[in-house]
Amino acid sequence: MISRLTGILAAKRAPQILIDCHGVGYEADVSMTTFYQLPEVGQQVAVWTHLLVKDDSHSLVGFIDEAERRLFRQLIKVNGVGPKMALAILSGIDERQFALCIANSDVTMLTRLPGVGKKTAERLIIEMRDKIDTPEASAAGVAPVAGSSSAASEAIEALQSLGYRAADAEKMISRAQQQGDAGGDASQLIKSALQASVKR
Length: 200
What we know:
- This protein is α+β, with helices and mostly antiparallel strands.
- It has helices at 32-36, 66-75, 83-92, 95-103, 107-110, 118-128, 149-161, 166-179, 186-199, and strands at residues 4-13, 16-21, 24-30, 44-53, 58-63.
- Strands 1-2-3-5-4 form a 5-stranded mixed barrel.
- 39% of the residues are buried.
- The model is unreliable at 136-148 (pLDDT under 50).
């Protein structure tokens, strides 16, 4: 099993990255939370990984730390939550905020995450309550993002890959651009859009 990769970050385009490990390139899907914390292309990087095995394919999911990987593995055990939804959840909320939602039975906050309806949120609360540590502090916000026309297209595509409908993704990126506090790259657009969608 591939549990961790250390090498050169050869490419990154949300939500995928490519790591060159001594001449062998490993492609992995990552959450936006991990994506924001990656170094620039060409620099050394280390990510924890989870190998997804299907009948017709093997694929890797990468994580910035073990805590995020642990939560991902717990999420995909919940009925109705697959790898794609688990990554979308991790993209919109960090481990601490998620734990607070579970501890407070905050269905409203959870349903703001892509692909999470009321029934799924209720199921997450029931099934995850005994599996995660409850933080003591109160909830904060969620990770942000914002950008330009080609960057906007890339950002919209990334949001769609996380489970957002095309129309919703376009609206989110448009709002992020209108805020005027974002830089010109897709990563910042995605981050601002996700933050705004969870805070609303």
